[in-house]
Q: What sequence folds into this?
């Protein structure tokens, strides 16, 4: 009688890091975003929810954009402010792919804002993570569309005279179906929010507050100001979500503010063709 041999199934190794040298400033919260994303990916791949080869990670121009060199998946680096058209093009060409994008506030709130608005209103099935540090950091410290009033930098030596733009309020107003905000140094919760964004069908928008330690260190400012909203509260109330993100009490809420279910752009497009 043939002796039974016990087969031990060896799980394939998941390698998500690359050999590229990381060139962010020491301690930059971009490292935390990278760790949160890789950890989230590893969990999803292990759980069979995602295939490494089916993921495309796009990035724009800015300090954030280096992230595409540090993740071992298919990547695409776009022109400044043009990460979203690259993502929507990839998703339309092959809807089976999971398309995520990293962008900065200079990249998508200043240069490429129109793409952000149209992707949200169309409900393109892409997941966008914005590294928000309220400054053009790669070009060494100029004001951008979300720099606070009075911000002193190389382009505003006497202080910015512009009111900052509210990306979350805009996303809610134009029909984004997943709107969330997190804080980069909080790796655990950033990973949780990223995973929820990945599971969402449609346009998922996540603003990640990522202080720039070199040109605009806001860690002290945010220390007692940030708070997590109750995650048991319903997320289908648009009016409540808008009230929350107006930050009228001077504090900055974090969490998933709004989720909605409606057909994606790619679903409608495929039906038509
Ligand atoms: Fe990070 Fe700012 Fe350095 Fe860029 S300049 S790597 S955002 S600390």
A:
């Amino acid at each position: 009688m043939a002796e039974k041999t016990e087969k031990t199934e060896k799980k394939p190794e998941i390698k998500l890091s690359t050999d590229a040298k990381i060139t962010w400033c020491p301690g930059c919260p971009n490292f935390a975003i990278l760790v949160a994303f890789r950890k989230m990916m590893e969990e999803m791949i292990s759980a069979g929810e995602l295939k490494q080869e089916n993921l495309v990670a796009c990035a724009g121009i800015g300090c954030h954009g280096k992230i595409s060199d540090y993740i071992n998946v298919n990547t695409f680096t776009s022109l400044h402010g043009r990460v979203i058209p690259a993502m929507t093009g990839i998703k339309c060409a092959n809807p089976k792919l999971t398309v995520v994008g990293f962008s900065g506030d200079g990249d998508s709130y200043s240069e490429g804002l129109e793409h952000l608005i149209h992707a949200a209103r169309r409900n393109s099935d892409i997941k966008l993570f914005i590294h928000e540090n309220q400054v053009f950091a790669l070009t060494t410290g100029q004001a951008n569309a979300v720099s606070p009033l009075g911000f002193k930098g190389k382009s505003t030596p006497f202080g910015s005279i512009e009111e900052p733009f509210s990306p979350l309020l805009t996303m809610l107003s134009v029909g984004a179906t997943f709107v969330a905000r997190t804080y980069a140094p909080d790796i655990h919760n950033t990973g949780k929010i990223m995973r929820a964004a990945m599971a969402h069908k449609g346009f998922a928008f996540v603003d990640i507050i990522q202080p720039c330690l070199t040109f605009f260190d806001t860690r002290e400012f945010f220390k007692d100001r940030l708070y997590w909203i109750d995650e048991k509260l319903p997320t289908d109330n648009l009016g409540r979500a808008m009230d929350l993100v107006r930050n009228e009490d001077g504090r900055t809420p974090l969490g998933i503010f709004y989720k909605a279910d409606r057909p994606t752009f790619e679903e409608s497009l495929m039906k038509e063709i």
Remarks:
- Residues 30-46 form the longest helix (17 residues).
- The mean pLDDT is 95.
- The first strand starts at residue 55 and ends at 59.
